[in-house]
Design brief:
Helix content: 40-55%
Number of domains: 2
CATH topology of the largest domain: Rossmann fold
Strand content: 5-15%
Order of helices and strands: EHHHEHEHHEHHHHHH
CATH class of the largest domain: Alpha Beta
Shape: globular
Largest sheet: 4 strands, parallel
Radius of gyration: 22 Å
CATH architecture of the largest domain: 3-Layer(aba) Sandwich
Length: about 325
Amino acid sequence: MTDDTRPLWSPGSGRSAMCLIGMHRSGTSLAARVLSLLGVSLGSPEGLLPPGPDNPAGYWENKSIQEFDDELLAALGGAWDQPPVLAPGWPADAALAPFRDRARQILDTDFALSGTPAADARWIGFKDPRVSLLLPFWRTVLDIGTTIVVVRDPREVAGSLATRNDIDPAQAATLWMRYLFAATAADPGHLLLTHRQLFDDLDATVAQMTSHLGLPEPDADVQAAIAAHVDPDLRHHQAQGPRPDPNPVMELALTVWDDGRPDLTALSPTLIDAIGQGWLRPAADGEALAAARAEAVSFKEQLKRRNEKVRALEAALQAKAAEAGRSAEAG
């Protein structure tokens, strides 16, 4: 059991919190922007990741939460592309108390809405694919009302990951199933959307989002802004024609995908639990890489916090020097 008895962090004033999750390269960034246009506050705009070459329309993702989730995965013995085994009950580990403290600090810094233009937002929310794996931890910190899960054809995800990260199809398929089963199991009340829906049936998809969150229907200006953001030119790696280079793991993923009608019961419950908890993992040689990367992430975070302390000390010294100068002038 956790030794942290403090109440869950809440956005307050009748607001609720939600998370947008799903496997990397599945359209979560696109969906997050749609949610923000519908009135969900994604926190401080200054805290969002800037657009990048692989996401020129923006990630719409809180930078501090992304970095925090990377560090938490490292502390748990893995990384986003080499996730650790996470058996039931893992978030209650008392050793995670420092992480809970830091998660609350991020929420206090980037998601406290009082006095901001988003103070009347009905929902606050954040998007990070890693939360598909880490949602049980975040539920020990934040009162999360619901989640929206975005899923994409595993062949398209594999194509995107091959281009961006040089990940092979079998590992991509393993990750696709791990993220999907972990995310949906952690919130039985989730709304499941497909990447295709965002492009092929946008109006109906927006209606599903607003209905799920109890938001008002968008007016004409919001509808136009959403339509302008969902740019068909951003739709890459479309899976068409025969399945290329089939492998047994990809075949499992495609069975679940069911040609765009995801069937979360397509596999046996035992296999689903094994995949969702991480017992079906990429090749063993990735474990050594994951351990090395975990050490690198930990060192990076230590260095970051040390630099923050140095900057704080420098600011304090400058303030003290300025005060001494004013005292000398007054004397």
